[in-house]
């Protein structure tokens, strides 16, 4: 909503969780943003089902494999925070899907919640997609640290 109100951007959002999708639809409708925010309910993909061209993709993945692995200080419901395989498996899937979108889309990014996963993810990109340009940064949010990685593919063959 901030991107729409501040910059007049348009968004396509995907959501796997049925309840989270319902809540997102209500929020978009209540704020009269259906003309700027398109919601897509997906079953197992992340961005594979998006056919439109976009300039930038932002991902906020579930960080943990299970509620037992969840670290204190991370807020959110279990479906928002946990997924089989954790954030590394989820982000690797997102990267593979982004490769299939490289001809029409510019830059992809993801938030990372666990520091030692930054090298795992950047290494995965560099090894499996050597034509990618990868950047990472640390985000300081009060006492909380998160990391972000962005990539684009320089060869479109």
Terminal CA distance: 35 Å
CATH architecture verdict of the largest domain? 3-Layer(aba) Sandwich
Low-confidence parts: none
Tally of helical segments: 5
Give the overall form. Answer: globular
Account of the 3D structure:
- This protein is an alpha/beta fold.
- The chain has 2 domains: 1-43, no CATH class; 56-153, Vaccinia Virus protein VP39 (Rossmann fold, 3-Layer(aba) Sandwich), CATH 3.40.50.
- The chain has helices at residues 2-7, 18-30, 78-81, 86-100, 117-128, and strands spanning 11-15, 37-41, 56-59, 107-112, 132-141, 144-153.
- It has a 4-stranded mixed sheet, covered by helices on one side. It has a two-stranded parallel sheet with strand order 1-2.
- Strand 1 (11-15), helix 2 (18-30) and strand 2 form a beta-alpha-beta unit.
- Helix 4 runs parallel beside helix 5 (117-128).
- The N and C termini lie far apart (35 Å).
Describe the structure using short key phrases.
Rossmann fold, four-stranded mixed β-sheet, 25% strand, 157 residues, single chain, alpha/beta, two-stranded parallel ribbon, 5 helices
Topology record:
Elements: H1 2-7, E1 11-15, H2 18-30, E2 37-41, E3 56-59, H3 78-81, H4 86-100, E4 107-112, H5 117-128, E5 132-141, E6 144-153
Parallel strand pairs: 1-2, 3-4
Antiparallel strand pairs: 4-6, 5-6
